[in-house]
Design goal:
The chain is mostly helical. The protein is 57% helix and 7% strand. The relative contact order is 0.23.
Length: 122
């Protein structure tokens, strides 16, 4: 069962990353939209965060908890934690939306990622 979750999480990660990149570029038609920024930017610039908490899956995290997630190593070759990789990308996507990026291109992908993470608990 763990292998199934890992495979699903990697598939979802690829989808979220693609949607954030393409959605950020293709969906950037309104002048008020902000360009999407990477999870590395958000990890290194906490004072730029437009919100102080986010809900990932079914749990709400404080900014300090989110920064801990962003700062946690996801592992390496063959041992990467797909749920952490997905969480990093989801945090960036949610912060980009809160910062003014157009959410329309990625709304359903974010909902799918939240559903998947809700299955991991805590």
């Amino acid at each position: 069962m763990k292998a199934v979750y890992k495979n699903l999480a990697f598939q979802m990660l690829a989808t979220v990353a693609f949607a954030v990149i393409v959605g950020g570029l293709a969906g950037h038609s309104a002048a008020a939209d902000s360009c999407p920024l990477s999870h590395g930017f958000w990890r290194n610039h906490p004072t730029a965060w437009p919100v102080t908490s986010l809900t990932l899956g079914s749990q709400t995290y404080s900014q300090a908890e989110l920064l801990t997630i962003l700062g946690t190593s996801v592992g390496g070759k063959g041992g990467a934690d797909a749920s952490l990789i997905l969480a990093d990308q989801l945090i960036a996507a949610e912060l980009n939306i809160a910062n003014g990026s157009d959410s329309a291109p990625v709304d359903s992908t974010i909902a799918d990622a939240d559903d998947l993470l809700a299955g991991f608990g805590g």
